[in-house]
Write a structure and sequence with these properties.
single chain; 837 residues; alpha+beta; 43% helix; nucleotide-binding; ATP-binding
Length: 837
């Protein structure tokens, strides 16, 4: 609907305050729309739901959960900058912050990187204020500042003022005297004098020059943290010397701490032992020819397709049962690993990948089991490159983590494949970042795993100092799994990112992909991969030892038929099939005749059909179906009574409980299926028959689940808002802020200064006057759910108990019932005119 022309609109750019901001809300108010959009993109939890105004946005940005999430997404130097601000005076000047990070001697890399880190903290609303009054958001300061319960990542302890807060004034005066300072008339000035001493580099050097060597050794053990130590009731002389001069201060009975100012002097002003302003480089390990990398990756991509097909073909008639708690049993995982000829962790990866791609699910029947989904049949009909992109995109976005299979959860329960507890929301981000770092290397270069993980740790460090050196944290394991899984899937080859793997990333690769962008990237990758995949063959090499060699991948009809007629003996670059009486009988049971098999082999063999194979087929076919088995409970029928006599005389038939009913018929005490298998085990080739006497054709029944959707990834937090949502949210926040902060003319006093209170007659008269003058109004409004809000509107007409007005909050023309308007006030002159659009 087109918007009606009105005389008043909020300005496109917020007015810049004339003075320094007094709060985070004021600084947010001074931002332009692009800056607000950047904040909401990097911290999407702030618009869930959309704040009513900028004050509420600032309040939400300071909540503990939101601040913790924001801190966890900082890189190492930005986090070190926040940690330095937490131990700096509040507020702190830029130069003070720089000194804490660069030290007394200065560090040009820190000097160059600090503006970027500080801009990051400001953009994410963790720091506000001008450069001469930098303030860390209070919640962030509480999280990062030192305390006995939560040591600071910097290893610093409390300041002199904080450590002496409970100390007697007399004791403080004694410390001053021993340190060579004049006594003062009160504790406040005494603490200030001691602080001034500890922050004066020259005077502190002179004081420490007098210290015994063993006292300095005590300080050296505490200087980089933890800053607390234990002492006895009668401290040793080396400790007494430090305690008497305030270089160690008691914080609790038996506990002392090195004051922050003393530690900073001994550290040459540095807040951190090692400041890391620049990310560590990802070092190339080995460089291969790009063509070799692409060929290796394409070969592995085809192997991935064949493995997933083999897995689901093995489960075609119904896979393993679903555990009561969900997932696959250890026994079934081992059985699947043997069938795929891979280790169990690799088998778990393929199973989880098929599940993530929507090709595998549980059937939800009474005896619940896993089976292929209808989507699997559609997937089989796609070209090979498109089938691969389905798997690759499912892997990139899945939060399920196969590497956890076999581990333990928080309740010490085993984590099983396809079971609960495998989702890790950080997995997609780590996978994408690993591929992006590989993409930054020269083409054909693989990365040294340790340098890649060091880079990931710099980009997303662990906030717990004791965890920084750990090699078993989740992100490290996710990165190592991503490298191995990308190789299995054919995204990388020989450890280097392939050309089609590179196409899966955005441009630039650091940028996250939306759903549409990922689909486009997958399409590009598929086009690049297609020419590299091997062309399926339509022939095999038959050999006299009853084997067939497939020198490459086979066309699907040939592969399916050969899989029935022969058993796979070995896999690799060439697949070897072996013909056996059992495999030939399997083909005959499926409805093929001997002539069909001869014609099939002759048509698809590049060599003449060997005579032993012809004899094998004819021999099995000659005996196939000579015996007939049906349901009596079960019977055996044969025109050759001598064969029936042979069966009865065989001791192995005792368990079948056979007895003769007629010269050509034997009855059995077992069911037809057991009788069929028993006679086959004795070396006969019986065929099952129907009640009409026709041979039953034993075709495999493909069991499928009902239609299933692929499992949804578990997000790490609220989704990143798109451009449309950002535009609408910023408009609503701006309008709500205008309504809450717009100066208003004097009106009837409201309780607690909240919504205006005017009578119905006054509200109606003011509305009608505003329609004639075009002046904007500030109203209090209560909606149908009882939620109260403040709005700035420009009335257009008033009739029938309703006012139609342009609502700046919703940025549209709306109709308001007059009885829901609690009061109205005219805006002050300095707030108008508002430009019309």
């Amino acid at each position: 609907m087109g918007r009606m022309s009105v005389n008043h609109r909020p300005p496109e750019e917020p007015a810049q305050p004339s003075a320094a901001p007094r709060s985070l809300a004021e600084q947010l108010r001074a931002r332009d729309d692009a800056s607000l959009a950047a904040l909401l993109q990097v911290r999407p939890d702030l618009i869930t739901p959309v704040p009513t105004d900028l004050t509420q946005l600032a309040t939400r940005a300071g909540t503990r959960a939101s601040v913790v999430r924001a801190l966890e997404h900082l890189d190492r130097f930005a986090l070190q900058t926040a940690e330095a601000l937490a131990v700096a005076p509040d507020p702190a000047a830029y130069d003070t912050l720089l000194a804490l990070l660069a030290g007394d001697e200065g560090d040009p890399e820190v000097t160059g990187a600090l503006p970027r880190a500080l801009a990051t903290l400001r953009e994410q609303a963790l720091v506000w204020g001008a450069d001469d009054r930098l303030r860390l958001v209070r919640t962030a300061r509480e999280l990062l500042a030192p305390s006995p319960q939560h040591p600071s990542p910097t290893g610093l302890g409390p300041t002199v003022a904080e450590a002496t807060a409970g100390m007697s004034p007399g004791r403080i005066q004694e410390i001053l005297a021993t340190a060579g300072l004049p006594t003062t008339h009160d504790a406040v000035s005494a603490v200030a004098a001691l602080t001034e001493l500890f922050t004066d580099r020259t005077r502190m050097r002179a004081l420490l020059d007098e210290a015994p060597a063993d006292s300095l050794e005590v300080l050296s053990r505490l200087v980089w943290g933890p800053p607390y130590g234990q002492v006895t009731a009668d401290p040793a002389p080396r400790l007494r010397w430090l305690l008497d001069r305030g270089l160690l201060l008691p914080t609790a009975p038996g506990t002392v701490v090195i004051p922050r100012e003393v530690a900073l002097h001994l550290r040459a002003g540095r807040a951190h032992r090692k400041t890391e302003p620049l990310p560590p480089a990802v070092e190339p390990a080995v460089t291969h020819r790009p063509q070799a990398v692409d060929a290796t990756a394409a070969g592995q991509a085809y192997t991935a397709l064949a493995t997933v097909e083999e897995l689901l073909k093995d489960w075609d008639e119904g896979g393993p049962a679903v555990l009561r708690a969900g997932g696959l049993s250890v026994r079934d995982l081992k059985r699947t690993a043997v069938a795929l000829d891979v280790p169990e962790p690799i088998a778990a990866f393929w199973i989880e990948l098929a599940y993530a791609a929507g090709l595998l699910a549980s059937d939800d029947e009474a005896d619940e089991q896993y089976a292929a989904t209808p989507a699997y049949d559609a997937w089989l009909e796609l070209p090979a490159a498109e089938r691969w992109t389905r798997l690759a995109t499912a892997w990139l976005t899945a939060t399920r983590t196969p590497g956890l299979v076999g581990g333990r959860d928080a309740k010490d329960r085993t984590l099983s494949a396809l079971g609960p507890g495998l989702d890790r929301s950080a997995a997609p981000e780590v996978r994408h970042r690993v591929l992006a770092l590989l993409a930054a290397l020269p083409e054909g270069a693989s990365a040294a795993a340790d340098s890649l993980i060091a880079r990931l740790h710099w980009e997303r460090p662990l906030r717990n100092p004791e965890s920084q050196a750990r090699t078993d944290d989740l992100r490290t394991r996710l990165a190592r799994w991503a490298l191995s899984e990308a190789e299995l899937l054919g995204i990388t080859g020989r450890g280097a990112l392939s050309t089609h793997g590179r196409a899966l990333l955005a441009t630039p690769p650091d940028a996250p992909l939306t759903g549409a962008e990922l689909a486009a990237a997958a399409s590009r990758a598929g086009r690049l991969l297609a020419p590299l995949l091997p062309t399926p063959l339509g022939h095999v090499l038959l050999q006299a030892d009853l084997t067939a060699v497939a020198p490459g991948p086979l066309e699907r009809p040939l592969a399916d038929m050969l899989g029935v007629l022969a058993d796979v003996e070995s896999k690799g670059g060439a697949t070897v099939y072996r013909f056996t009486p059992g495999s030939v009988r399997r083909a005959l049971d499926a409805g093929r005749s001997a002539s069909d098999l001869h014609a099939f082999l002759a048509a698809h063999s590049s060599t003449p059909v060997p005579q032993p194979l012809t004899y094998l087929i004819d021999d099995v076919a000659r005996r196939h179906g000579h015996l007939r088995i049906g349901a009596a409970s079960a019977y055996v029928r044969c025109d050759d009574d001598a064969m029936l006599n042979e069966i009865l005389a065989d001791k192995r038939s005792a368990d079948l409980r056979l007895r003769r009913l007629a010269p050509t018929v034997l009855a059995a005490g077992t069911d037809p299926a057991t009788l069929l298998e028993g006679l086959r085990a004795m070396g006969f080739a019986p065929a099952a028959e129907s009640t009409e006497g026709d041979v039953l054709i034993a075709r495999a029944h493909a069991h499928r689940t009902p239609p299933r959707t692929a499992p949804e990834p578990v997000p790490e937090g609220p989704p990143v808002p798109d451009a449309t949502l950002l535009t609408a949210a910023i408009r609503a926040i701006r309008a709500g802020d205008l309504a809450s902060t717009a100066p208003r003319k004097a009106a009837a006093p409201a309780a607690n200064g909240s919504l205006p209170r005017t009578t119905s007659a006054e509200t109606l008269a003011t509305m009608q006057a505003a329609v004639l003058t075009g002046e904007p109004l500030w109203i209090g409004y209560v909606n149908a759910e009882g939620s109260a809000s403040q709005r700035v509107i420009a009335p257009i007409r008033v009739e029938g108990g309703f006012v139609t007005a342009y609502d700046h909050t919703a940025d549209e023309v709306r109709t308001f019932p007059l009885h829901r308007i609690t009061g109205v006030a005219e805006l002050a002159d300095e707030n108008a005119p508002l430009e019309a659009q």
